[in-house]
TrEMBL record:
PANTHER family: ALPHA-D-RIBOSE 1-METHYLPHOSPHONATE 5-TRIPHOSPHATE DIPHOSPHATASE
Record has Signal as a keyword: yes
Entries under InterPro entries matching the protein: Amidohydro-rel (IPR006680), Metal-dep_hydrolase_composite (IPR011059), Metal_Hydrolase (IPR032466), Metallo-dep_Hydrolase (IPR051781)
Any one Pfam family match given in the protein's UniProt record, by short name: Amidohydro_1
UniProt name for this protein: Imidazolonepropionase-like amidohydrolase
Residue span(s) of domain Amidohydrolase-related: 122-526
Keywords: Hydrolase, Signal
Amino acid sequence: MMRAFSKLRLAAGLISAAMCTVSPAFAQDPVQQKVEAVKPRAGANPAPARAAGEGAGPFRKMVIRGAMLIDGTGAPPRGPVDIVVENNRIAEILDAGTPGLPMKQGREPRDFDHEIDAAGMWVLPGFIDTHVHGSSADKAPDLGYSYKLWLAHGVTSVRGVNLAPWSVSTVEKARSARNEIVAPRIFDYQRVGQGWDKGPVRTPQQAREWVRWAAKNNIDGIKFGIGPTEGPEIFKAAIDEAKKLGLGTTAHLTQTGVAMMNARQAGEAGLGTVTHFYGHMESLLKNGAIQDYSTDYSFNDEQYRFAEVADIWDDIYEPGSKEWADYLKAQKDQGVTFDPTMTIYAASRDLMRARNADWHNEYTMPQLWDFFQSSRENHGSYFFDWTTKQEIQWRNFYARYMRLVNDYKNIGGRVTTGTDSGFIFKTYGFGFPEELEMLQEAGFNPHQVIRAATMNGAQTLYEPKGITDPPIGMVRVGKLADLVIVKENPLQNFKTLYGTGTLRLNEQTQKLERVGGVSYTVKDGIVYDAKRLLADVAAMVAAEKKRMGWPEHGVPRP
């Protein structure tokens, strides 16, 4: 099938071989990393130290008073309750009164050091984003930009795949664990061969050796690509070794390798998580294991790559067919987690909406905005001549993909929430509420969405470590105090979780007003004012605009 853009040719260099591929500029030598940091796509700068006044606590005893509780397990909301936190652990959850009646004043405990009046508010577990990359040097001055945007949206734990080069990620993970920086809890996944000084991994035995090195060097898991340099035998060897040593695994089954190993085959080999959609549809092709690409396709031309990936939607077995059901059952039997990351490709089905989102003017860093613009060099900036037909193909593709994810949930398969922001007009943090919205669009009820964003993510991160009762992901006595406190009921409208809130007509004034946004994010018992975090980010963005000679308000338009 010939496309309208078929005469476009690659103008400059090779584009990354897969979404989230680590750039060759990520040198192993820390000194060289500093030199490379001034070049495009050159690693990431550490976040600044947590300053005085950034977050309050942890406290010997803190009480969150009178809230409605959504505990993350799928249980219905209950309340009002008082949540007692001692240091960084939930110590008690106490009934605070009867709905419809005034709450009793002066409730115990009274020996608190800090109290939050959460009457009329909602408390949830801290959100878990299972697919992130930190704000690299070509997108923001330092990692603090992405950290604060994640926390401002209630994200208290992230799985970096990778967050940054290993030498940076491992330090940032430790700094976050000690709360020396304003950052979510970090789980560090790296690609096979990253971080060590023995060069590329070319054999299964080298893969095993690297996994053993990773387990000793603060790495939590492996991100696979399955492409030209990371074939099935290396994949299988690394997974086998990872299981022995308690490392997690996730894979982006890129088009350059999916014909050798689709998602079903990866699940049979022991893969923990399939991230993105790659590999699912290829497991369901009616005419064999290889998609029918157009004859002038080039993977390195990203408009070909991302346009044609959606064309597979009508080449697969129908939803609800025996083949469809067999695939889902096989993945569930293997215990594979689906991490859909629908938000990151949403611009493909509605480019104008993504490009004109409410938050870009104030919260999108100018370097990141430049990165988003159509470019032969920047990964994910593939809208060279995007057409109505391509958007329709993506809408059709998403209808099938959403059905697949929802059907998997319905048979008891685990689904998590990941965003992959920093590409394709997705600003860090803001992609998370959109992922929740898209899970609801797929057919999840709001309670199922919240469980995907909390408990399911926690189980996915901790099970490889042999921990079946994770310390995060639920609001229960004994769990870590990772919490989100909001004024609006998110079950009623996930749009209220965006940092910019959502518009609602005030019936008294008959004027639109902006409501929502997270009020407080609690990580390890430390209370962060989410609105202040957003103000910090806005100030960072304004300073960069001034430094670069941009207008104070707005972003440049082509």
